Automatic annotation (TrEMBL):
GO terms for biological process: response to metal ion. Belongs to the CutA family. This is Divalent cation tolerance protein. One of its GO terms (molecular function) is copper ion binding. It comes from Saliniramus fredricksonii. The gene is cutA.
Length: 107
């Protein structure tokens, strides 16, 4: 049985995040994205410490679509290497699970 899954990723700005979120929802690769603007990122890049403001996103999808979600984001994303963390959802109430499965085309 397919399981709900969260995919965490980031975008450089709200416009990019909304554009890619729209693609994922329209293509039924996810049921919903939560966009969290104003995230302050401090990170290492090319041997130096850098910082930026990003938009974090939680993609609500199912495990069977994880590779397709990441590929679609990668195709549309301006970063050379967008970050992806898959977070297993161990529990979801029946109504939420049914909604997620229905909106992503699960049978």
């Amino acid at each position: 049985m397919d399981q709900p899954l969260f995919v965490y990723t980031t975008f450089p700005d709200v416009q990019t995040a909304r554009r890619i979120a729209g693609l994922l929802v329209a293509e039924k690769l996810c049921a919903c994205l939560n966009l969290l603007p104003g995230m302050h990122a401090l990170y290492r890049h090319d041997g130096a410490v850098a910082e930026d403001t990003e938009v974090a996103a939680i993609v609500k999808t199912r495990a069977a679509l994880a590779d397709a979600v990441e590929a679609r984001i990668r195709d549309a994303h301006p970063y050379d290497t967008p970050v992806f963390f898959r977070i297993d959802v161990t529990t979801a109430d029946a109504a939420t699970r049914a909604w997620l499965m229905a909106e992503t085309g699960a049978t």
